[in-house]
Amino acid sequence: MxxxxxxxxxxxxxxxxxxxxxSSSPVCNNAEMISKAFDAGWAGIFYKTVGIxxxxxxxxxxxxxxKEDTPWIGFKNMEQISEWSLEQNVExxxxxxxxxxxxxxxxxxxxSNEEEWITLAKAITEAGADMLxxxxxxxxxxxxxxxxxxGQNPELVRKYTKAVVDHTHLPVVAKMxxxxxxxxxxxxxxxxxxxxxxxxxxxxxxxxxxxxxxLTGLPVVNGKSAISGYSGNAVKPIALRFITQLAQCxxxxxxxxxxxxxxxxxxxxxxFILLGCRNVQVTTSVMQYGYRIVEDMINGLSHFMDERGVxxxxxxxxxxxxxxxxxxxxxRSYKIIPAIHLEKCIGCxxxxxxxxxxxxxxxxxxxxxxxxxxxxxxxxxxxxxxxVCPVFDCITPGEVIFKDGRDNNRNGEDxxxxxxxx
Length: 422
Ligand SMILES: Cc1cc2nc3c(=O)[nH]c(=O)nc-3n(C[C@H](O)[C@H](O)[C@H](O)COP(=O)(O)O)c2cc1C
Ligand code: SF4
Ligand code: SF4
Description:
Layout: E1 9-11, E2 14-16, E3 20-22, H1 31-40, E4 44-50, E5 62-67, E6 70-77, H2 86-99, E7 104-109, H3 114-127, E8 131-135, H4 148-151, H5 154-165, E9 172-175, H6 184-192, E10 197-200, E11 204-206, E12 210-211, E13 216-217, E14 228-231, H7 236-248, E15 256-260, H8 266-274, E16 277-282, H9 284-289, H10 293-308, E17 334-340, H11 350-358, E18 363-366, E19 371-374, H12 384-388, E20 395-402, H13 412-417
Parallel strand pairs: 3-4, 3-16, 4-7, 7-8, 8-9, 9-10, 10-15, 15-16
Antiparallel strand pairs: 1-2, 5-6, 6-14, 11-14, 12-13, 17-20, 18-19
Helix pairs in contact: 1-2, 2-3, 3-5, 5-6, 8-10
Bound molecules: flavin mononucleotide (FMN) and iron/sulfur cluster (SF4) (2 copies).
Flavin mononucleotide binds at residues 23-26, 48-49, 75, 77, 79, 81, 108, 135, 138, 175, 202-203, 231-232, 235, 260-263, 282-284.
């Protein structure tokens, strides 16, 4: 059943019919393709990063990582910003705004000095865009005056953000690089420069694979490859980590967040929303499956809200932020012993092997019946076995054992109820 709840949300003072945007990349290169995306249901876009001049790109420029039979676990690209000139892109943006006045047209820009940032900001503002995104984060620019080299330098981030903010009336989002240990520093610098929002993450510097025959990386360009950006579902945990840290940072409490990195489904998107994002952006999964994935995102999120009795998407923004705490504050007073439901067990032995070779030798294996048994005294409650068992609900969290003198009269069942295994 298709359900359309009101998913609208205000992002940086702009009404968005839903939180789903395309992120700046080849999925939003020109007016024709973006029109198709808008018709499919995307609320807005961040147009492929516009520079003063078009780029000189290499071929091929993509590679994927795989695991067993699953391709596209991660995606590597060696592409820079738009191949078109500023003038060509301005024409496309004008066309789009005229045909889609109610969709949100964010445009990503990138200059190599203050003057270029100002020229770009003025031209895109005059073209009719709704917001600007400052690309401080592309990891494979051939100029060190652009991209993630700038994004790692808070002084430059502050300076270029201010230059843009002083020459536009539009909301400005600064897009951060994950190729840094503390993203809060450039994000705070962007806010000091006047940015209204922060988006994260751009791609992660990577070497996706080495070709064992030709002894070079992939993709191969005339015998060579280069360190460049990794994206897709594999990077989502890293993106969520950065978003958590931005959401928890006192100096960033006034800015709004846009989450990017590995979003394929409505559940992925909701995770970013629960960590404080009012907007989410997608590229790699659209490159793999096409614009239509937004239909499922809209439908899935609508159903979820309906089931939970949530009327406004806004009410879910940030609900999980305070539940991510420092490791030293975690409750370490108990262990949860797994319960094996033998009636569901298919006798594959994976729990036994993993516990023996990768954990604490706490599963005994009966080679005649091909059934496992937990040895409670050896078990530390790590739950590796729950994660390797291929049968749904065959191993579940069982008895809670408190460490000596640390039960504080607590009920173990309440602790188990909080656990989720997918
Ligand atoms: C082929 C490709 C080209 C990209 N080009 C740009 C770009 O021009 N500007 C930009 O800000 N980000 C660019 N990105 C980064 C994406 O916008 C996004 O931040 C990143 O891919 C993570 O999201 P994802 O996992 O949904 O792809 C590009 C990504 C890919 C895969
Ligand atoms: S929880 Fe860990 S230690 Fe205990 S049986 Fe499972 S894998 Fe072994
Ligand atoms: S992994 Fe699961 S199915 Fe396989 S032996 Fe262990 S309990 Fe049984």
